[in-house]
Design a protein that fits this description.
Order of helices and strands: HHHHHHHHHH
CATH superfamily of the largest domain: Tetratricopeptide repeat domain
Radius of gyration: 20 Å
Shape: elongated
Number of strands: 0
Number of domains: 2
Strand content: under 5%
Helix content: over 70%
Structural class: mainly alpha
Largest sheet: none
Oligomer: single chain
Length: 187
């Protein structure tokens, strides 16, 4: 059993060889024992990794948020809030992602804000590429492209996104949305 007096090595060796859901259970119980702040952050980050491996992105986002709350430095907080935003994007929860992005921006300087925003734009592109490969996730891909149309991409990038969204609408049989996007240029 995990106790709040344990260190990282001890926790890792205890969890070694156990299944993911068993690890989730043990780590959740461990956090409830209120270990020191560094160990709580460690446990939340481990939970987030497990959740991402299981494609439980919303749960991973919650773990990253808790890790950020338990982080001491602004840089760690910023990184964990950014990971939270990325997890919400992967889970298709764009409004929550925007909130997490704002939290990351609150911890950043002006130059860091620009870097964070460019990282998020790149992550949206990468997520779109991943969803394009999945035949059964065209609805999520359409939602992702719709969100990307509202972001601050450069002119020709926005045109490419629009063309891809039109193709997805066509595949999904969304004639009304297809016509609106084609005629007006906005969803």
């Amino acid at each position: 059993m995990l106790t709040k007096d344990m260190h990282k090595d001890e926790v890792e060796s205890f969890l070694k060889g156990k299944g993911d859901f068993v690890k989730i259970d043990y780590l959740t119980r461990y956090i409830k024992t209120m270990p020191p702040i560094e160990m709580r952050k460690f446990a939340y980050l481990n939970l987030a990794d497990i959740y991402i491996g299981k494609e439980m992105y919303v749960d991973a986002a919650g773990a990253f948020k808790n890790a950020a709350v338990n982080s001491v430095s602004f840089r760690e907080k910023q990184e964990n809030f950014l990971k939270e935003a990325k997890s919400f994007i992967s889970g298709g929860k764009f409004d929550e992602s925007d909130k997490a992005l704002r939290r990351a921006m609150d911890e950043a300087s002006k130059n860091e804000k620009e870097e964070i925003y460019s990282q998020i734009l790149e992550f949206y592109k990468k997520e779109a590429e991943n969803l394009e490969k999945a035949v059964n996730k065209q609805g999520r891909l359409a939602s992702l492209y719709e969100k990307m149309m509202r972001l601050k991409f450069q002119g020709n990038e926005k045109d490419k996104i629009k063309e891809k969204l039109l193709k997805v609408y066509e595949k999904l049989g969304k004639i009304k949305e297809y016509k609106i996007l084609k005629d007006i240029g906005r969803v």
